[in-house]
Design a protein that fits this description.
single chain; alpha+beta; Cysteine Rich Protein; rod-shaped; disordered N terminus; transcription coactivator activity; repeat
Length: 249
């Protein structure tokens, strides 16, 4: 199980923390090495069915095993050498890595609410995790490019344009004088010479209570989070605290 905590950051109704990724499924089974004491009679290996004559044996699942017989049913590694636990699922005995790969999950995509399999490449924004194909503005469906800034506001990912538009309307609702000022500006515009969508009133673009990041590593996997925090609050195309790996060839 991997779990880290970056503390909490709050603003308005926004609270963020580092993502915790947990192993889904049953509790791991202990694997222990013991001396082969024949005083109670010969012991039979649960794997091959033969007598265990070696000096040491493995005990797991309330059974005895040759060290060479207790192996992962997927990668064939010797479980007594790779750790002190094993997993069982669908009549398979598995090492931790293969159990996670086959049956584990990273969580649910914050956009489509579908399960994200373990080891799949993902994008992260604070405590939210997303499929690569789901990481887009949830207002206009704009797919982000390297260098684009995005905002996590009300648990939704927004591009910079839609975020600023939402901010303007929110400020107009709470500041009637600013709304009147904008109306005066609009009335003074030339009909054919100005773009109304380009209006930006400085007093309205206040510091948002939302989390934002700047993308710089589109398409790289983000798992698990590390503590490589950057002071400017921007990093890869995911959480500023996420660990990145080279994409598969």
């Amino acid at each position: 199980m991997h779990s880290t905590d970056n503390g909490n950051e709050s603003g308005g109704d926004q609270t963020s923390s580092r993502t915790a990724v947990a192993v889904a499924g049953p509790t791991p089974v202990a694997v222990s090495t013991a001396a082969n004491n024949n005083s109670s009679g010969p012991r039979e290996c649960a794997g091959c069915g033969k007598r265990i004559t070696e000096r040491f044996l493995l005990k797991a699942l309330d059974l005895f095993w040759h060290e060479d017989c207790l192996k992962c049913g997927c990668c064939d590694c010797r479980l007594g050498e790779v750790g002190s636990t094993l997993y069982t699922k669908a009549n398979l005995i598995l090492c931790k890595r293969d159990y996670l790969r086959l049956f584990g999950t990273t969580g649910y995509c914050a956009a489509c609410n579908k399960v994200i399999p373990a080891f799949e490449m993902v994008m992260r924004a604070k405590s939210n995790v997303y499929h690569l194909e789901c990481f887009a503005c949830q207002q206009c469906n704009h797919r982000f490019c390297v260098g684009d800034r995005f905002y996590l506001c009300d648990n939704k990912i927004l591009c910079e344009y839609d975020y600023e538009e939402r901010l303007v309307f929110a400020n107009m609702a709470y500041n009637p004088s600013s709304l009147a000022h904008i109306r005066r500006q609009v009335s003074n515009l030339q009909p054919a010479g100005d773009n109304l969508t380009g209006i930006r009133h400085p007093s309205l673009l206040t510091s948002p209570p939302c989390y934002s990041e700047k993308n710089s590593a589109l398409g790289v996997p983000q798992r698990p989070p590390s503590n490589n925090h950057r002071d400017d609050g921007s990093s890869g195309y995911g959480s500023p605290d996420s660990e990145t790996f080279d994409p598969p060839q």
